[in-house]
């Protein structure tokens, strides 16, 4: 692990520590400045999006003048602008969260909560912010733990081989690396436990294997045994399902082939046959293949003889059509191909003679 990599790990660890008090940042700071309450001040509060204070100001003015809130249009203005402000802030905070700009998001949600403390939408986006930030920190911790598991054990061994056991000044780096390894292992074990709860056995096994690079114990071995058993079981189930699916495919294909042969639809039967190549050694499939070859040969012979009779009778079009059908069933039959070529040439010459 290079000094730069170690520095990156330290920086990431500081970020995680600095964010550990993230929920505390969500506290409010009240502005205790006292201002004379009048309409100009209320309008200023509205322009600054301080809707809660503006409503409190209206309430104070109404105590001296009970009809003030009915006469004033400021309450309607506050309600309208507060609704617009709420929608705008929820959208902006959502964008900041999606971009992982947590500091900006918390500043904005703090101010929005201060301006609209009774807003359900602001309260909801604040809860969402806490949840997503916790997930983000968890991902960072897991990323750091994976990198530490992959690199630090070998680095620790190197340090241990270089440090004199009695050199007290050199034990601090060993202790620091050891603490980082212990923390990373705990993170990996927690992540593996979460994946086991969700039955994500492959992912859980991956985290456990990384934890094993750091150190081993009975709990880890038990978890590894569980995940490997589940992975093996899932594989066997999948293989069994695959075999079942293949058997269904074989059965349906055999049925289709048998029916096509029975109906005399030999071209269709020939198209179906390649799907059974994997089972051609099975007795049932082998019998169907023999039936297909027998019927195709018989049909080709029949078409060839009928074509010859029509050719002899001068019915060129009929002969050509029958020999084309025969070649479709037996493309490699050179004898029929020769007959077809001669008939087509003869017909072409005959057609030329008919042209005036």
Shape descriptor reads elongated
Mean pLDDT: 80
Radius of gyration: 42 Å
Residue runs with pLDDT of under 50 for 5 or more positions: 24-33
Task: Pick out its properties.
Serine Threonine Protein Phosphatase 5, Tetratricopeptide repeat, 356 residues, mainly alpha, elongated, 3 domains
How would you explain this protein's 3D organization?
- The protein contains 14 helices and no strands.
- The chain is mostly helical.
- It folds into three domains: 15-138, no CATH class; 151-240, no CATH class; 245-354, Serine Threonine Protein Phosphatase 5, Tetratricopeptide repeat (Alpha Horseshoe), CATH 1.25.40.
- The protein is elongated.
- The model is unreliable at 24-33 (pLDDT under 50).
Q: Which secondary structure elements does this structure contain, and how are they paired or packed?
A:
Blueprint: H1 3-18, H2 39-47, H3 51-64, H4 68-71, H5 74-98, H6 102-115, H7 120-162, H8 171-197, H9 201-214, H10 218-263, H11 266-272, H12 283-312, H13 316-329, H14 334-354
Helix pairs in contact: 1-7, 2-3, 2-5, 3-5, 5-6, 5-7, 6-7, 7-8, 7-9, 8-9, 9-10, 10-11, 10-12, 12-13, 13-14
């Amino acid at each position: 692990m290079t000094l730069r990599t170690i520095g990156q790990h330290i920086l990431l660890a500081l970020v995680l520590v600095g964010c550990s008090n993230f929920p505390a940042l969500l506290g409010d700071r009240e502005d205790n400045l006292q201002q004379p309450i009048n309409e100009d001040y209320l309008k200023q509060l509205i322009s600054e999006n301080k809707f809660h204070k503006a409503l409190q100001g209206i309430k104070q003015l109404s105590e001296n003048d009970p009809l003030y809130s009915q006469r004033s249009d400021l309450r309607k203005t506050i309600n309208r602008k507060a609704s617009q402000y709420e929608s705008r802030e929820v959208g902006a905070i959502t964008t900041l969260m999606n971009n992982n700009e947590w500091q900006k998001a918390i500043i904005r949600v703090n101010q929005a909560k201060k301006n609209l403390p009774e807003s359900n939408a602001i309260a909801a986006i604040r809860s969402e912010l806490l949840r997503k930030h916790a997930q983000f920190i968890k991902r960072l911790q897991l990323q750091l733990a994976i990198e530490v598991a992959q690199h630090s054990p070998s680095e620790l061994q190197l340090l241990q081989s270089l440090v004199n056991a009695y050199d007290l000044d050199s034990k601090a780096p060993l202790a620091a690396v050891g603490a980082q390894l212990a923390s990373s292992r705990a993170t990996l074990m927690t992540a593996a436990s979460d994946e086991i709860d969700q039955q994500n056995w492959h992912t859980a096994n991956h985290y456990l294997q990384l934890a094993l690079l750091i150190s081993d114990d009975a709990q880890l071995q038990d978890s590894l045994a569980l995940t490997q058993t589940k992975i093996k079981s899932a594989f066997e189930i999948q293989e069994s399902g695959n075999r079942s699916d293949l058997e269904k495919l074989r059965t349906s294909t055999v049925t289709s082939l048998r029916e096509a042969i029975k109906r005399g639809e030999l071209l269709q039967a020939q198209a179906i046959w390649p799907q059974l190549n994997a089972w051609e050694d099975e007795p049932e499939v082998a019998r169907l293949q023999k039936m297909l070859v027998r019927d195709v040969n018989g049909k080709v012979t029949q078409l060839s003889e009928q074509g010859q009779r029509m050719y002899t009778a001068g019915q060129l079009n009929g002969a050509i059509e029958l020999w084309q059908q025969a070649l479709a069933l037996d493309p490699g039959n050179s004898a029929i191909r020769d007959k077809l070529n001669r008939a087509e040439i003869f017909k072409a010459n005959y057609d030329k003679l008919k042209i005036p």
